[in-house]
Specification:
single chain, alpha/beta, seven-stranded parallel sheet, six-stranded parallel sheet, 16 helices
Length: about 400
């Protein structure tokens, strides 16, 4: 079955879960055309991401003239569909912070996508994230393109559901996907009860074979890793006071920060100002093998996020048999079980974060190993990428009986 994946920016270092899902669907017999609006906005350090970039068709690289031509051709071939799509774009643009002009650009992108899907015989389009990629998929369908579905991750979509016209996207979709029960509950809030059955849960997945033999916990001082983009919602700035407080009880504590982003300079400045430089290592973005190596060298993951969907880094740490300190938000408690696979603390509470670090340091290594193994069993049972992609495959096939 030929399908299209519609994405905004692809690939991205933090979106390896999309690549894994794509590859799993291809192993299950789907032929997938990758269509992204634009290329990555961060250096691609992983060979898998670079390979995906080479296989991806980038809409905006075709140029404005080509997009306008596609818009005109689509309007001539399907004038009724184009009028419907134009009205829909105008309506959604009135609600959106992006505005109507931006939605007219989405309309041109949708025309290009509709024509490409027709040329390759794509029967279905699936978008990741409920933002502009889902808008393009919806407008493409309105003007005569294939039926569509989309995966909502959060937290951005949940912050502005009306501005993103999420309810309209769900109503017009063959189905919508949430990555957690929490995510599904937020989508159910937006539409009438009789549409709830259209909202499915498909977890993001890991490849168990890449975590086949977990490394034993290392000897020595407590070593934590934090992984993610350095942005406000990830809460890394809270690690500075938490780390300073925890060091009073755990003087040889060390933290490795994996990732990069707009807040890197602020993080570096804060760490230096508090005299924590000897306790913190910055690595920048690492490829998947590099992340697994850093997890193997650590005793656990710490994730201080203020807003999330269901973090992949938590899944990867648990698959590596490492306990997790995380905030009690969104879908995270569906994975991290307080006192069993790690510690859950209130978001924004630096004292609680420091307390959890001290508790981990005081926990016997044998108990930490048991917690890690419990987490590993839980994530492998719930987040095997082939099992989750098979659910998505079934939903797509059901939409085209």
């Amino acid at each position: 079955m030929q399908i299209a994946y519609i994405l905004n920016t692809y690939p991205q270092p933090s979106h390896s879960f999309i690549r894994r899902e794509l590859h799993s669907l291809e192993r299950q017999g789907f032929q997938i055309d990758r269509i992204a609006m634009r290329g990555p906005d961060a250096p691609l350090v992983d060979a898998g991401d670079r390979a995906e970039a080479a296989r991806t068709h980038y809409v905006l690289r075709t140029g404005a003239a080509a997009l306008l031509r596609d818009l005109a051709v689509q309007a001539l071939r399907r004038p009724g569909g184009m009028l419907s799509a134009l009205k829909l774009a105008w309506h959604c643009g009135a609600r959106s912070e992006a505005g109507r002009l931006r939605h007219l650009i989405y309309l041109a992108e949708a025309a290009h996508v509709a024509r490409r899907c027709a040329a390759i015989g794509a029967l279905h389009a699936h978008a990741h994230f409920g933002t502009n990629a889902a808008t393009v998929a919806m407008l493409s369908h309105a003007m005569g393109g294939p039926r569509y579905s989309f995966t909502v991750h959060g937290p951005e979509e949940f912050d502005a559901p009306r501005a993103l016209s999420l309810a309209t996207k769900i109503e017009r979709a063959a189905f919508a996907v949430a990555i957690s029960s929490f995510g599904r509950s937020q989508l159910c809030r937006l539409v009438p009860y009789d549409l709830w059955s259209r909202i499915e849960i498909v977890h993001c997945g890991i490849e168990p074979a890449r975590f086949a033999v977990p490394a034993p916990l290392p000897q020595g001082a407590l070593h934590l890793v934090a992984i993610g983009r350095f942005v406000e919602q990830k809460g890394q700035m809270l690690l500075i006071p938490a780390l300073k407080a925890a060091i009073a009880d755990v003087p040889d504590l060390h933290l490795t920060l994996i990732g990069d982003g707009p807040l890197r300079a602020a993080l570096e400045h804060g760490i230096k100002a508090e005299g924590l430089g000897a306790h913190v290592t910055f690595t920048g973005w690492l490829d998947e093998a590099g992340v697994r190596a850093r997890l193997a060298a650590s005793h656990g993951l710490i994730m201080p996020s203020f807003a999330e969907g269901l973090p992949m880094v938590v899944m990867e740490a648990m698959a590596a048999a490492r306990p997790v300190i995380a905030t009690y938000i969104a879908g995270t408690p569906e994975l991290v079980q307080d006192g069993i696979t790690g510690w859950l603390v209130p978001a924004g509470d630096g004292a609680a974060l420091a307390g959890a670090i001290a508790q981990m340091a005081d926990t016997p290594r044998s108990t930490l190993a048991d917690m890690g193994n419990a987490g590993r069993a839980r994530v492998l049972a719930r987040h095997d990428v082939d099992a989750e992609a098979a659910k998505l495959a079934d939903h797509i096939r059901a939409a085209h009986p």
